[in-house]
Q: What sequence folds into this?
């Protein structure tokens, strides 16, 4: 369902998510819904450019709706045969650190969907960069079916113990669904 474009800023939306080909259909459906929102509203998807799992689902949804897709992928992943053909623009980088730096540089907002260690690495790197003041961008952590409950508990404990997360807490927005995430993006990032 498209939203009124004149009420939102057109953004480059970075999605961190699983590339595992074994990801469950219910998780891939989350990525599909997000991809539809991105494309139908003129936003650009920025993601890791790999094949498999939620990465394929979000990119396929954007592509199906003729949206723009920027994939940022390390050469090693290409060499391993995991490069997606869906990006309308592909940026090849040296390694995962360069990938994370480029994702943070060109994106306006971040959405974190369920994933594994790579997703957590990207999330922690982005939240740390924002906390240190390298940028002031929103990070939406989609806690679908309590997937990130352990991470949220860790954040609460860090906050309780005054371990560095208190200053820029407002950059992290925890949601429970794609629908809530979209609503918060629409209400937070208006022109």
A:
């Amino acid at each position: 369902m498209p939203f009124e474009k004149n009420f939102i800023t057109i953004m480059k939306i970075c999605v961190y998510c699983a590339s595992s080909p074994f990801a469950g259909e219910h998780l891939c459906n989350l990525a599909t819904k997000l991809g539809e929102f991105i494309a139908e509203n003129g936003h650009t998807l920025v993601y890791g450019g790999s094949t498999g799992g939620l990465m394929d689902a979000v990119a396929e949804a954007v592509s199906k709706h003729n949206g723009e897709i920027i994939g940022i992928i390390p050469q090693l992943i290409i060499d391993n045969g995991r490069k997606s053909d869906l990006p309308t623009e592909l940026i090849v980088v040296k390694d995962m650190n360069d990938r994370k730096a480029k994702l943070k540089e060109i994106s306006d907002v971040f959405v974190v969907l369920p994933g594994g260690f790579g997703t957590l690495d990207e999330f922690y790197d982005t939240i740390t960069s924002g906390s240190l003041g390298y940028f002031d961008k929103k990070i939406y952590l989609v806690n679908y079916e309590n997937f990130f409950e352990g991470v949220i508990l860790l954040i609460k404990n860090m906050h309780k113990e005054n371990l560095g997360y208190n200053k820029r807490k407002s950059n992290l927005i925890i949601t429970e669904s794609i629908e809530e995430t979209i609503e918060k993006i629409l209400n937070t990032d208006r022109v």
Q: What stands out?
A: The domain at 10-183 is CATH 3.40.50.450 (Rossmann fold). Residues 1-6 have pLDDT under 50 and may be disordered. The first helix runs from residue 25 to 40.
